[in-house]
Structure to design on (1125 residues):
């Protein structure tokens, strides 16, 4: 944890730290001046200093305003920096929706949790370093005896705070599991409400919810009794220190060895020495959640980036031949190989269907061909040129890419179709949609091609999303098609129109189709079967029966 | 702000009102001790300067020490008592929310989806925030402010008047203005956050598509813009909170100066002036937390209102004079059943008759209506048109509890509760003995899983417990369904997440078990369906093919297509 806080602190620009330090000195000085003016007015029964006092107060208000502004802007700036950095580093394997989702939560609400660290803890940290010193100096100058008492008792605040904090951490740590279990019960029964209903256990659980919530209360109060002790101890130390200063001051006033103005000044200034230190502890606890979020962000930023390869050879136009030579792929963190020495040749203009059980490595094969996954060993050749030597962007510009779960972007249907060619005009978008058999459902949407899709294309069926992906591939017009058919079964009509669209898309192109249905296999010239990352059957002619005769293996 | 939805929540808070007020008074007393500490110390010093007898000061000396000790202790008591009272409210509130959701009609219970569930739980927790961070500081501020005014009033009436004005400005006007302005800034920031969430999801989840289509830089720039706009919104929120902090300070200082000035004009002595200055300082200090409380209040009130709406929602309608569901095996019949979710039609005039005791497999594309069919038979979704009959009785006229007792099994949203494996199974049949448990587990292929678990039947699973793999979880849920052994057993993808060989063997067992009642089994694997009495193929909410597996395979059509597709992905 300590390391995370130090790293967060380093993110604050130096001039912000210096600025906050200067402001803290200003706060300390004004605090002293304010106390002196107040004392002069009170002890001298003189309204003269009061306008000055008002001026000092205005100065303190301006400083408070400046501190909040500087800290708030620094927080916004650091968060933006972290957000942009996080956007640049990949969220994990493609299609791992959960990973991207939790990354988005971290990017937005998660990082907002860092606010209390920058707006609360950092300024308070500087104030706690500066203000007590300034105030104590004035205090000691006014009355060295009181200054000595305060100087001796001030260190007790952090010492007691830390001691009690350590002890309570041990005690509450022991209860944490119990608290978590009891507290999580409500969520658990809400999540399982329909199960409880189905088995007629609702009435019983209704009592259990209250019972366990009450158990949670008792356990919480037990834990809090100890947890609150730390602030009680700190508060008592502060209060007793004030009393320790005040009573002797009173007695010395009594025997005339101290002037009233000095006594009052000591009394007003003493609590101000302790205040920043007490507040620091509270700020520190309030920023704990954000520190956890920052830790997650740093972990994501520190994760090693996948190796990127990029050559400079720009391949010729026209449908190329593709060849895999002994390609082996292993995903980071996995001991199993996804592809195990796969060799496969696809001639120019040939269509190859890849089949096999789930986990056989079919989708990985397409990712390798698109240059999205770099093989551990082996080569991918495009017209005889190693993919590693090709200009990746130029190679990808030649791909028609139809993934299993196409991501639909926040934007209009038309913009989603022209993803690969943002300058395509509306006519070409409609043409692409027609070719992909998507025109009919798109035109039925409330705003047709201008309909803005919900998050991740919510509201569209799997078949419709796939057809939009086909339209995308059609519009980008590359001579190579890489198509990953969804495993989820589409309804009969969607499946028929997709196969028709496939015929149109594939004409004159080199294609690798990961097929889960006989209908798409029938579109191919040849079938390759993968199992356990290996090619188990390579050169079968595809059955040409449109209803899909059995594929013998 | 209206308080309409909050009345239901008030009903839960009221029984704890005494405890809450006690906590609030303790908090106020702690603040007053702070006030007393400063005032007594000031009096002590100012009086001592006038050189009275020591005896005249001894009370003040004791008071200073007493106040110091009492302040910390009372603060401690307040926090503990406040949390205790708030958690008591939470216990009852959770119970009531659970009851309200459980008693609601079928559609409303779907809080399964993670976000809705999280929001519901945090909405309920917001009530705790309301009590601890808005109500209690409010009570303390009012009591202290009043006490400060009284103390000043004893010294100089005009000073008290000035202090009252200062308190209202610091405790009401500034917090209100800050909350309004801050609320506006918060709305802008929330919109910025939303935009960033959408854009960054595009960049992160669509990374592969963007890379292939060469659009990665374009979309990264869009997400960067969203981050920049969010930063701008956050900066304006920071400006508002900076103004709020500064105003608090300014009002405090001006009030102290004004009160002292008023006291001096009224001719108070040194002691009186000291008391006035310090009292007003502490009194204003105690109302400054109202700015934070007001900000919280704005955040919390919508959540509390949503909780109120849940509590106030009408319960499920139970038919008057319900007919009894007959005992023994039951037939199921659906005639022209239509079910729609929003605009989407899930069942589109579906007709299906299943004789008592028959084992029927339901197959079809995703979204074809398979799960909805099971839900319609269990009375779990409202039927728009057509009728569902159970043993010849219309479902709509049966008591919902009766229907649920007759039709149950394994639903898509079946839940593994945090608890022991045994408790999770016993949910289906609370009195079942060990032999029955073992028999059900055996049939579901779950017994081998239990025996491999570290604590066997007493292993804690579910949230916070031991993680089960997808396959183990599925077998647990199936064992629970089999233990229930109802007249009509509905199983939605019971072998999902199992490896295909085990899945097929299990499906075959389920369909050919000699004892037991009617079975409706939804599956996406066809290999074992020769064991079914009948197979029903759904497409777009209608039955498109039905018959025995062998017969369906002989004719070209959708079922044979499905079969061929399965062969493509079968390991040979």
């Amino acid at each position: 944890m300590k390391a995370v806080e130090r790293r967060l602190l380093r993110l604050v620009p130096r001039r912000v730290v210096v600025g906050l330090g200067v402001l803290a000195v200003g706060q300390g000085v004004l605090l002293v001046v304010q106390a002196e003016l107040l004392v002069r007015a009170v002890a001298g029964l003189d309204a003269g200093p009061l306008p000055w006092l008002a001026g000092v107060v205005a100065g303190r208000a301006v400083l408070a305003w400046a501190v909040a502004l500087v800290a708030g802007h620094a927080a916004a700036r650091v968060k933006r920096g972290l957000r942009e950095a996080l956007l640049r580093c990949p969220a994990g394997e493609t299609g791992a929706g959960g990973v991207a989702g939790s990354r988005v939560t971290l990017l937005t609400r998660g990082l907002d949790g860092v606010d209390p660290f920058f707006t609360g803890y950092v300024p308070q940290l500087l104030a706690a370093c500066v203000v007590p010193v300034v105030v104590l100096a004035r205090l000691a100058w006014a009355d060295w005896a009181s200054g000595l008492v305060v100087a001796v008792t001030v260190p007790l605040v952090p010492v007691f705070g830390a001691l009690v904090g350590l002890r309570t951490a041990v005690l509450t740590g022991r209860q944490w599991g119990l608290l978590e279990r009891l507290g999580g019960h409500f969520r658990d029964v809400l999540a399982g409400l329909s199960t409880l209903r189905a088995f007629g256990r609702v009435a019983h659980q209704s009592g259990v919810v209250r019972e366990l919530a009450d158990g949670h209360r008792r356990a919480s109060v037990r834990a809090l009794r100890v947890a609150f002790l730390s602030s009680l101890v700190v508060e008592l130390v502060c209060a007793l220190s004030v009393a320790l200063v005040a009573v002797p001051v009173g007695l010395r006033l009594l025997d005339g060895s101290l002037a009233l103005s000095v006594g009052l000044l000591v009394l007003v200034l003493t609590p101000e020495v302790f205040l920043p230190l007490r507040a620091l502890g509270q700020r520190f606890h309030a920023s704990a959640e954000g520190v956890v979020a920052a830790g997650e962000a740093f972990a994501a930023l520190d994760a090693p980036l996948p190796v990127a390869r990029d050559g400079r050879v720009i391949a010729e136009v026209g449908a190329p031949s593709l060849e895999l030579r002994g390609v082996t792929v292993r995903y980071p963190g996995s001991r199993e190989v996804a592809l195990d020495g796969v060799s496969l040749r696809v001639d120019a203009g040939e269509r190859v269907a890849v089949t096999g059980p789930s986990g056989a490595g079919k989708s990985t094969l397409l990712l390798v061909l698109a240059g999205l996954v770099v093989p551990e060993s082996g080569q991918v050749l495009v017209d005889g040129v190693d993919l590693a030597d090709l200009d990746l962007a130029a190679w990808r510009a030649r791909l028609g890419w139809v993934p299993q779960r196409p991501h639909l972007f926040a934007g209009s249907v038309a913009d989603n179709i022209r993803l690969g060619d943002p300058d395509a005009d509306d006519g070409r978008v409609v043409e692409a949609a027609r070719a992909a058999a998507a025109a009919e459902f798109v035109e039925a949407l409330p705003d047709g091609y201008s309909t803005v899709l919900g998050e991740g294309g919510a509201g569209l069926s799997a078949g419709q999303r796939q057809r939009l992906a086909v339209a995308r591939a059609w519009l980008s017009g590359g001579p190579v098609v890489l198509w990953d058919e969804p495993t989820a079964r589409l309804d009969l009509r969607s499946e028929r129109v997709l196969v028709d669209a496939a015929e149109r898309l594939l004409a004159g192109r080199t294609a690798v189709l990961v097929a889960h249905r006989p209908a798409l296999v029938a579109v191919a010239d040849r079938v390759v079967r993968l199992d356990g990352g290996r090619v188990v059957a390579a050169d079968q002619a595809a059955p040409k029966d449109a209803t899909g005769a059995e594929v013998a293996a | 702000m209206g308080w309409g939805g909050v009345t239901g929540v008030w009903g839960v808070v009221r029984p704890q009102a005494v405890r809450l007020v006690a906590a609030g008074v303790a908090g106020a007393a702690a603040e007053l001790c702070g006030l007393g500490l400063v005032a007594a110390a000031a009096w002590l010093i100012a009086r001592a300067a006038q050189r009275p007898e020591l005896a005249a000061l001894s009370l003040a000396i004791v008071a200073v020490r007493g106040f110091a000790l009492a302040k910390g202790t009372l603060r401690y008591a307040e926090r503990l008592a406040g949390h205790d009272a708030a958690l008591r409210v939470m216990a009852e509130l959770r119970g009531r929310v659970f009851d309200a959701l459980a008693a609601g009609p079928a559609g409303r219970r779907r809080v399964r989806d993670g976000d809705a569930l999280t929001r519901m739980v945090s909405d309920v927790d917001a009530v705790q925030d309301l009590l601890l961070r808005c109500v209690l500081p409010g009570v303390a501020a009012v009591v202290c402010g009043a006490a400060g005014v009284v103390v000043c009033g004893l010294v100089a009436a005009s000073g008290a008047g000035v202090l009252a004005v200062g308190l209202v400005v610091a405790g009401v006007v500034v917090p209100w203005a800050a909350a309004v302005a801050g609320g506006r800034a918060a709305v802008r920031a929330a919109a910025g956050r939303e935009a960033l969430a959408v854009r960054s999801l595009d960049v992160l989840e669509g990374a592969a598509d963007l890379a292939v289509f060469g659009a990665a830089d374009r979309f990264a720039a869009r997400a960067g813009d969203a981050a920049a706009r969010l930063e701008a919104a956050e900066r304006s929120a920071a400006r508002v909170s900076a103004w709020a902090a500064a105003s608090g300070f300014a009002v405090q200082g001006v009030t102290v100066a004004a009160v002292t000035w008023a006291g001096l004009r009224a001719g108070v002595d040194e002691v009186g002036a000291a008391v006035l200055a310090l009292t007003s300082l502490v009194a204003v200090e105690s109302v400054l937390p109202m700015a934070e409380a007001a900000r919280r209040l704005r955040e919390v009130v919508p959540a509390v209102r949503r909780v109120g709406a849940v509590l106030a929602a009408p319960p499920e309608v139970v038919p008057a004079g319900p007919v009894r569901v007959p005992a023994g095996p039951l037939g199921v019949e659906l005639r022209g059943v239509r079910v729609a979710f929003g605009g989407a039609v899930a069942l589109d005039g579906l007709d299906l008759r299943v004789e008592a005791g028959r084992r029927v497999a339901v197959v079809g594309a995703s979204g074809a209506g398979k799960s909805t069919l099971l839900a319609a038979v269990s009375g779990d979704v409202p039927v728009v048109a057509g009728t569902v009959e159970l043993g010849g009785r219309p479902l709509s006229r049966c008591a919902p509890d009766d229907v649920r007792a007759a039709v149950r099994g394994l639903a898509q949203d079946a839940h593994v509760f945090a608890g022991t494996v045994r408790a999770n199974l016993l949910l289906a049949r609370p009195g079942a003995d060990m032999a029955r448990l073992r028999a059900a587990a055996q049939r579901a292929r779950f017994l081998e899983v239990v025996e491999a678990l570290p604590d066997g039947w007493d292993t804690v699973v579910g949230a916070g417990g031991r993680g089960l793999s997808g396959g183990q979880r599925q077998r647990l849920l199936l064992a629970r369904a089999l233990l229930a052994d109802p007249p009509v057993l509905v199983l939605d993808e019971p072998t999902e997440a199992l490896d295909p060989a085990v899945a097929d063997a299990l499906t075959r067992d389920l369909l050919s078990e000699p004892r037991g009642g009617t079975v409706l089994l939804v599956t996406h694997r066809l290999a074992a369906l020769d064991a079914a009495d009948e197979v029903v193929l759904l497409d777009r909410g209608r039955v498109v093919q039905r018959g025995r597996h062998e017969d369906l395979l002989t004719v070209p059509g959708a079922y044979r297509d499905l079969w061929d597709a399965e062969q493509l992905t079968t390991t040979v």
Chain B touches chain A through 152 residues (CB under 8 Å). The two ends of chain B are 68 Å apart (CA to CA). The mean pLDDT of chain B is 86.
